[in-house]
């Protein structure tokens, strides 16, 4: 195993260990999800929502949950004064990869709970399970990749909490449109090998593009 991979895994393990001890992100995300779904349930009680609306509601919950927790990946380093030590410990590429890996694992863990609770509480039937699962996975990867680089950009800003969703949303608009459309099709029972599959491919291309550009720019973002 190369030193770069070891350093990336070390950064991810450090963040995971910190999260296990503090449970800051999981607690914040969990409370947000429960509150949001409860509000949605009361607001739509007795109403029959279209599959498009249900898909939009699901990804609204996921998006704002991510905004509530994923920004901590770099902000916490600045607040605790460990950013300089991290710069000396590992190259910028390994730091970005480790932070990205942690955010992906955190978001996938969160989304397992979000999806299960949403489908149960909102009484939604998924007719094309394969398309739905691929959409959730591809959407989570894209959301985590964009959120990671935005977190690095705003880490040293004064109004971090306000800037994070403001900067992240324009970058995530194409992804959100794709995941909502693909999720709607999975609720409607459209086959995977069709428009839904095309959306999943576009999500993968989006994620690859974001990670590629972020990897190139991250050295400047992290050291400036």
How far is the N terminus from the C terminus? 30 Å
Oligomer: single chain
Quick check: average pLDDT? 80
The H/E string reads HHHHHHHHH
Task: List low-confidence stretches.
Answer: none
Question: What would you report as the Rg, rounded to the nearest angstrom?
Answer: 18 Å
Residue share in helices? over 70%
- Contiguous helical run count: 9
* Structural class category: mainly alpha
Largest sheet: number of strands, sense, barrel closure: none
**Total number of domains:** 1
Number of beta strands: 0
Assess the beta-strand content as a share of residues.
under 5%
The outline comes out as globular
Provide an overview of this structure.
- With 224 residues, the protein is mainly α.
- It has one domain.
- The protein is 86% helix and 0% strand.
- The protein is globular and about 55 Å long.
- The mean pLDDT is 80.
Summary of the model, kept short:
The protein has about 220 residues and is mainly alpha-helical. About 85% of the residues lie in helices and about 0% in strands.
Descriptors:
single chain, 86% helix, 224 residues, mainly alpha, 9 helices
């Amino acid at each position: 195993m190369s030193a770069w991979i070891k350093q990336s895994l070390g950064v991810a393990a450090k963040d995971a260990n910190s999260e296990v001890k503090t449970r800051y992100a999981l607690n914040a995300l969990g409370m947000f999800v429960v509150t949001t779904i409860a509000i949605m349930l009361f607001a739509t009680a007795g109403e029959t929502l279209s599959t498009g609306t249900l898909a939009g509601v699901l990804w609204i919950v996921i998006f704002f949950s991510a905004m509530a927790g994923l920004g901590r990946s770099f902000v916490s380093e600045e607040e605790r004064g460990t950013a300089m030590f991290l710069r000396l410990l590992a190259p910028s590429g390994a730091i970005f990869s480790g932070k990205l890996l942690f955010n992906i694992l955190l978001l996938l863990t969160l989304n397992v709970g979000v999806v299960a609770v949403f489908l149960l509480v909102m009484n939604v039937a998924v007719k094309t399970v394969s398309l739905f699962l691929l959409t959730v996975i591809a959407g989570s990867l894209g959301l985590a990749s964009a959120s990671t680089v935005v977190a690095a950009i705003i880490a040293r800003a004064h109004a971090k909490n306000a800037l994070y969703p403001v900067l992240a949303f324009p970058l995530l608009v194409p992804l959100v449109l794709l995941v909502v459309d693909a999720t709607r099709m999975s609720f409607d029972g459209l086959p995977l090998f069709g428009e839904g599959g095309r959306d999943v491919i576009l999500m993968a291309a989006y994620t690859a593009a974001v990670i590629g550009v972020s990897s190139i720019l991250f050295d400047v973002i992290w050291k400036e």
